[in-house]
Amino acid sequence: MRGKLIEVYPKCDKESINGMLLIIAEKVVEEIERGGIEEMLGVAESTPSLDLSEDLWKTVWEVSNIVLEDMKKEEKKEKMKKFIQSEEVKEMCKFASEVGVRGNMLREMRFKWAKEKMEEAEFYETLELKRDEEREGIVEEEEMNEGEVNEYGAEDEVAEMILEEDSFEANIRDYSKLIDAHAKDQRTDDAERILEKMIGKGVQPDILTSTILVDMYSAVGNADRAKEEFARLRRQGFQPDMKAYNSMIMAYVNSGQPKCGESLKCEMEARDIKPTKEIYMALLRSFSERGLVDGAQRIATTMQFAGFQPTLESCTLLVEAYAQAGNSDQARANFDYMRKVGHSPDDRCTAVVISVYEKKNLLDQALDLLLQLKKDGFEPGVETYTVLVDWFAKLQLVDEAEELLEKTIVNGQTPPLKAQVSLCDMYARSRNEKKALQALGIVEGKKDLLSVDDFERIIKGLIEGELVPEALRVHKLMEARGFTASEPLKVKLMSSRATRYQQNSRLGTSAFGFKSHQ
What we know:
Radius of gyration: 38 Å
Number of helices: 25
Largest sheet: none
Distance between the termini: 93 Å
């Protein structure tokens, strides 16, 4: 500022210049005290001082801005020094040097990483400041983009940066190591991004890379992509080993294609590669869940031929397969076989057999089975009681259903949601409005856990019990969950609305509860 004044007033002595500087300094301090340096600089041009000429005031602000910029640069420089010496940047540089980065390139990357870390820290500081302002009520409605924070580690980040440098001649192993790191944490998008970069630079996946990808797609249940990589392995002349087969079979299992998994198992056996017990059980479970009894029976049989003896779990899965298919005779036959080979049935397996009897309404056979098991010391648990409560509720055996429910409570177990759905349906159909509404309240509190079948059963029961407003309310909850009512239920809802309208009309009231004017 002294230099500027000397240029304008060359004939003034030092004392006069000092006096001018003192006046200018006092005015600047006065403005700073009013609103701070940032605010002062922002409004200066629109509010010139009355004590200084306009030209002089502009000169003051030009010099002040230059000084402020220099201060900011110096502050940023000191801040950068801290980040350059930070442990995280040092660790990244250490890793970079281990993979062959040296000299000027390493220095440039160190500066680049330090700058990125500093900018990241500044971003979070700004974010915290905005959050504080929101809490204090300064910012009422402001959308803040908090950005996306990388979830993977510093080493993966460094490695990817290095691969992007043209001066670093990356080979297939450099890419495959990074793909493997992402694959192990099931970061599919990141792994695929590295794969695209690799192919884009003319590097085709080799056997090791394809094996890594098969494992990754298997873990996330993407059978189509796993199949593509498995086919790539074969084209490269690779004979799948135990690990590759296991990964591909699990990919089929996780995507609900057990038959394709079974075909690969047969291929393994043809090549004298013995499938593990885990593979057999995974296939058996997948067939069982879908009620594919032929497949489940084949797996159980070949499992025995392979030397794996039936366990409680494998027997239960076979019983579940026949239960899913609605074959009560075969479900019971396999249940009896399980007991014959020395496995005591648990609550889950017993509940499965009772449920298949429920589908056929074979109450005598169900009670006979429970009587036999009781002689052997078996005590039904919550799963068996839940099936029985559901069954008795459908038969409108209210007292019996309540008695069974009491037993679960006495045993310290909370009645599951399925039992509450059954009770709601039962009480509604039996015209017990008070208990129906109590059960409905419990069910509505867990509406996010209800299946489409649960919703349909509740609504049908409420309509049957002439609780139409409640049925319509539950139907809205059903639609809010994204479920669509079946055609029979739609007909019932339309019919109930029409009936309600006619009843209200006879009473001189509209469907909305208002008196009609005639």
